[in-house]
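Case 323 in the screening queue. Each case pairs one protein sequence with one candidate compound; here the compound is PMV. For every case the pipeline is the same: read the inputs, emit a complex structure as C-alpha cells, and attach any notable structural observations.

Predict complex for case 323.
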Amino acid sequence: MKATAIASPNIAFIKYMGRKDEVLRLPENGSISMNVSNLLTTTTVEFAEHYAKDEVLLDGETEEGEGSRVVKHLDRIRKLAGIQAFAKVVSKNTFPTGTGLSSSSSGFAALTVAGSAAAGLQLHERELSILARQGSGSACRSIPDGFVEWVDGATSEESYAKTIFPADHWDLADVVAIASTERKAISSSIAHSTVADGPYYRSRIARMPGKIVRCKELLETKDFRAFGELIEEEALDLHVIFMSAGIIYLTPQSLEIIKRVPFWRSQGLSVYFTLNTGQDVHLICERADAESVVAELKKLSVVREVIVSGPGRGARKIEEHLF
Ligand code: PMV
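Case 323 output:
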C-alpha cells in the first residue's frame, strides 16, 4: 500500500534540549511551538513485497544503511502493523535541510503519517505524536495543528504533543532568514546527549516549568512585547547551554542578523529572534510587521533567502503521490 503526507516543521518558542531517555526520546523538559506554514515536507511511503530492501530517497539523495534513522522508524511502523515488507520512501523539502529549520520535525512527522497509513494502521493524533517522537523528538509537535505543547511525560505513552491554540488564534509570522545552506557540523541528537555535562544545564531545567506557564499565558493574552522578550531570552538561554558544553552553532552571519534586531526595535519595528540547532535565524513578529522585517533583512548582504510563514496546520495525508 502507498500513502503520502505533508508536514511543516515547527519553531519552538520554549525549547526541548536534553533527554531523560535516549532510546524513547523522552525530553528533560516540556516545550511549546508553532507549526511553520510555508516550509513543507512531502513524503510518500510504499510497503511492497517486491522491494528487496528499504529504499530511501531524501531530496534526491539516497539514504544508505540498515541503521539509518528512517529505516529504524520504518521498523517501528512494521512492528506496530505486524508486517515484514520492505518500503520505498521518497521525501522532498521546500527548504534547506540541517541548517536550523528543523527539517527532522517535518520529516519524521510526514514519515509517521504516510508510513502508518501505508502500513494499514489507523492511528489517532496522540498515537501518531508518540510514534513521531521516537523518530525525532520535535517531530511529535508537527503532528497537531497550530500552537502546540509537548508535555514531557514520565513514560512513552505520556510524552506527546497537543494543540493548545488553533492556527488562527494569533496572526504571528515566522520570517526565516537563511544565512547559509551549509549543513550544521553537530546534529541535534549529539547536542541532546552532550548538553547535560555543561555547568548551567541543571539550572535551565529548573527554570523550564515557569517558562512554559509564562509562554502559555502570553500566547493566551497576545501580549506581543512580553512574548517576544520571553522567546528571545529562551533562544539565548539555549545557546548559552550549547556554548558552555562546547557546541557553537551560530556563525558570523547569524550574529550579524541577530545584532540588528534590537536596533530594528529601537526604530519602532516590533520583532524578536529565536534560534534552533543551526545557523538560520527565525524572526518572529506580528503579521502586519512581516513585510517591514523582510525589507530590513533584504538590506543585509549575509541573508541569502527569506521565507515568511504563519502558524501552520499539523501533518496530514494528501492524495497526490511522489512516485
Ligand atoms: O527533535 P530534535 O532532536 O531535532 O531536537 C530539536 C532541538 C531544538 O530545535 C533546538 C529545540 C526544539 O524544541 O525544537
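Case 323 observations:
- The radius of gyration is 19 Å.
- The domain at 172-309 is CATH 3.30.70.890 (Alpha-Beta Plaits).
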